[in-house]
Amino acid sequence: MSNNKxxxxxxxxxxxxxxxxxxxxxxxxxxxxxxxQVANKLLDKQTLVLEAAGLQDKAAGNIVATYNKYVEARxxxxxxxxxxxxxxxxxxxxRECT
Length: 98
Fold this sequence. Notes:
By secondary structure, the chain is mostly helical. It contains four helices and two strands, in the order αααββα. The protein is elongated.
């Protein structure tokens, strides 16, 4: 007699277990990398501001220090033209539009 250890139930169980493990790894990676993504987004925004202002040559590799030295970031209400409170470094224009 043939001793067949591969059954449909075991195959489905194995596939389900692999999916759960992979989903957990992706989820943990996303949570762990979120602070780094936020920091890189802020650095990119600061770099673009320095480029637009023509100050990137003065940065000499230290974007954050040069940005903090030459730039005062503030938020403006476009309807009234007045300054509003808040952290402009964490402002997300796409989220505010909806």
